[in-house]
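Sample pair:
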Amino acid sequence: MTILILRTDKPEAEVGLFEDEKKLAYEVWESHRELAETIHIKIRNMLSKSNKSLDEIGGIVCFKGPGSFTGLRIGLTVANSLAYSQNIPIVARAGSHWLELGIKDLLAHQNDKTAIPEYGAPAKTTKPRK
């Protein structure tokens, strides 16, 4: 199974492609405030360099947090959108072994259906002005 990997909880974003547990490609880049503009390009380029297409992705593993609110929101939205549009399973895991655990769970046919972020703290919202 070809697996897309996403991690977007910090300024250095990560995307990867695995064939089961074998790494095909992996890239880490300084995304900072340009994550929304760069993540799709990075995924497309990685697929192209690996001679793969979106239709060949069999599942997605992503890091769910804790981490940056905006980074997690963007990354998990991309992951959830791809999983939904391609009708493929998605698993979101946390912790230092998120990648290994996520791949293992995905290969065991687990499917979270929707990756839900864990921000690590309650959201800080402001009161409405009116």
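The chain has a mean pLDDT of 95.
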